[in-house]
Structure to design on (324 residues):
């Protein structure tokens, strides 16, 4: 993952090289946005939709971006809002409920992959699905982007101690759920 | 949790990250080249502004919410399916300017059809609700 400084991206965008600016953002954050959405929603198609929406919003808003926070914080805040809006909508609208539980199929991603790897991926997803929505978001930002507790708290709009508690309890649940794989790790 | 367990968890969860699907990456990178996005940005608000009083009378706030969602869907359609839209338009057009006109016409018709569908779905839902209320009364 190559992280380009924010000012460089903004200069590119403002000087008319909008496609290059977006390319840099997609390269740096596309994978994380997709994975955070996938882990929070546990739905492959919804994660793809959210990723598209996030980058359309970023592209449309980059011209007005004032730099009060970093591009990454802004981008993950949009991802968080988009994921939680979708989850809220799914709960409120029975028409959308057919999408719930459309759990990602790892075979589509890696049809000839190693059985053990696939098993491991499925186990991680199953373990993550045991967490609450906010916990899933905090855990995925922590593990996939190695963000600090403070950064996660800022993105999620939650007090630092709440985020610490999400992560502490989340890690505990994950460790218990994934204990079976511990022997293979060495 | 000890350091060993922490490392184990870091590695296991980190390894479960998926690569960004190539098709999705291409779609994301195509966003700036989609000049047609601007079409959505003025066509929908204009239509909604023109039709807002009628839509409000027909369906209230709920219908406006549905149209907000429609805009997101249309943005995606215009961004990622514009080639198919143009291909369809070429069936009706004889030359280049006609293709553009046909594309815009099809798109506007599609938007209008979607708004009609949204109004219809809204009415249908209200009808179901009314039936339930009546059933409860009797």
């Amino acid at each position: 993952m190559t992280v380009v400084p924010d000012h460089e991206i903004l200069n590119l965008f403002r000087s008319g090289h909008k496609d290059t600016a977006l390319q840099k953002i997609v390269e740096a954050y596309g994978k994380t946005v997709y994975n955070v959405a996938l882990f929070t929603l546990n739905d492959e198609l919804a994660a793809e939709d959210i990723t598209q929406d996030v980058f359309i919003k970023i592209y449309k808003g980059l011209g007005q971006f004032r730099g009060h926070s970093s591009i990454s914080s802004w981008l993950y805040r949009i991802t968080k809002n988009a994921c939680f809006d979708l989850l809220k909508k799914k709960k409120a609208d029975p028409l959308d409920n057919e999408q719930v539980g459309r759990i990602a199929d790892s075979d589509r991603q890696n049809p000839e992959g190693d059985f053990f790897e696939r098993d491991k991926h499925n186990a991680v997803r199953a373990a993550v699905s045991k967490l609450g929505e906010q916990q899933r978001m905090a855990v995925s930002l922590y593990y996939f982007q190695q963000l600090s507790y403070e950064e996660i708290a800022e993105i999620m709009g939650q007090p630092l101690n709440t985020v610490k508690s999400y992560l502490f309890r989340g890690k505990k649940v994950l460790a218990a759920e994934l204990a079976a794989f511990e022997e293979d790790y060495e | 949790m000890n350091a060993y367990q922490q490392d184990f968890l870091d590695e296991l969860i980190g390894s479960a990250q998926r690569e960004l699907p190539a098709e999705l990456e291409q779609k994301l990178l195509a966003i700036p080249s989609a000049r047609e996005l601007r079409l959505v940005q003025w066509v929908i608000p204009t239509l909604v502004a023109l039709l807002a009083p009628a839509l409000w009378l027909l369906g209230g706030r709920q219908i406006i919410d549905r149209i907000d969602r429609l805009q997101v869907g249309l943005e995606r359609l215009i961004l990622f399916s514009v080639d198919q839209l143009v291909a369809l338009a070429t069936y009706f057009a004889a030359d280049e300017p006609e293709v553009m006109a046909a594309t815009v016409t099809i798109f506007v018709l599609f938007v209008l059809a979607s708004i009609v569908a949204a109004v219809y779905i809204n009415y249908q839902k209200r009808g179901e609700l009314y039936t339930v209320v009546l059933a409860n009364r009797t």
Observations:
- Residues 36-80 of chain B form the longest helix (45 residues).
- Chain B touches chain A at residues 1, 5-6, 8-21, 24-25, 27-29, 31-33, 37, 72, 75-76, 79 (CB under 8 Å).
- DSSP finds five helices and no strands in chain B.
- Chain B has one domain: 22-137.
